[in-house]
Amino acid sequence: MPTAKPVEDLKGRLELTEAALQRCEKLAVASRYAGAIMHEVNNPLAAIANLVYLTHLQADDPAQVRDNMKVIEGQLVTLSNLTGKVLAFHREQPFAKEFDLIDITESALKLHGSRLTEGKVALTRNFRKPATAHVFGSEILQVISNLLLNALDALPEEDARLRISIRKDRDVIKIAISDNGCGISPQVRKKLFTPHVTTKETGTGFGLWLSMRIIEKHRGTIRVRSSQVAGKQGSTFRLTLPVKTAA
Q: In sequence order, what are the residues at sequence separation of 6 or more whose Cβ sits closer than 8 angstroms to the Cβ of residue 28?
């Protein structure tokens, strides 16, 4: 009579595979985030370097030196706040912490800032505070970043529009990401959150599946509505996350 051990072994291997995929996806997000952060860090660093140079030239003017030092101090505070946010998102968390989901979304937007600019995307924000929830910050950043990337990939070359709304509704935070892209066919939509499903030539088909797993871990939901009807094309992904979570 067959034992349950082969089934248990298979389950164990699947869990290890899923964990590895999640780590790979998180590293990919971290890499994109690092590139965006370097752009943010460069501006205050350049300002500090210029002010240090000017301070050397103005060393005989104590009042000007003091003014320069105040500006430098302000730039250092900016850098400190920026690095603090990065560490908060990407430090391994043993339990969920309170994060502002608007801040997480803004960080995800910085990840794809160059795509937004180069594509001349008309971005509409409809953010209503408060929007804090107990979550694993880096995981929610991963989900929102993936949804934004999918939306950007679907957008038309002309008149590209992206809309993001965040609001609290009783004990949940609702996030909606809408695009006026090509839409998703009903056939693909039925199995959109299963592994290996993708409409991209270079896609792995794991992004939405992992996103679903992360949102379910947070006791939330993820839904999609999409249309390919001419004049009404586009997709909307809706997330709900409880303000308090057992994750």
A: none
Q: Find the helix or strand (DSSP H, E) in which 235 lies.
A: strand 234-242
In the block, tokens 């609702």 appear at 174
Which of the residues in the chain have pLDDT under 50? 202-204, 247
Q: Six-digit token pair at 246?
A: 């057992």
- Model pLDDT, residue 24: 67
The fold for domain 97-242 equals Heat Shock Protein 90 (3.30.565)
For residues 177 and 127, give the distance between their C-alpha atoms in angstroms, rounded to a whole number: 12
Q: Contact 142/106 with Cβ under 8 angstroms?
A: no
- Domain residue ranges of the chain, discontinuous segments joined by +: 6-90, 97-242
User: In this predicted structure, what is the pLDDT of residue 21?
Assistant: 66
In this prediction, residue 244 carries a pLDDT of: 82
pTM of the model: 0.68
**pLDDT score of 37:** 67
Fold of 6-90: Helix Hairpins (1.10.287)
Bridge-based pairing state of the strands 172-179 and 234-242: antiparallel
d(CA 135, CA 66) in angstroms, rounded, equals 43
Q: Which of 164, 93, 161 is nearest to 126 (CA)?
A: 164
Phi, psi of 43 (to 5 degrees): -65, -55
**Do residues 146 and 185 touch, judged by C-beta distance below 8 A?**
no
**CA–CA distance from 125 to each of 23, 91, 122 (Å)?**
30, 28, 10
**How far is the C-alpha of 212 from the C-alpha of 192, rounded, in Å?**
10
Angle, alpha carbons 37-43-49 (nearest 5°): 125
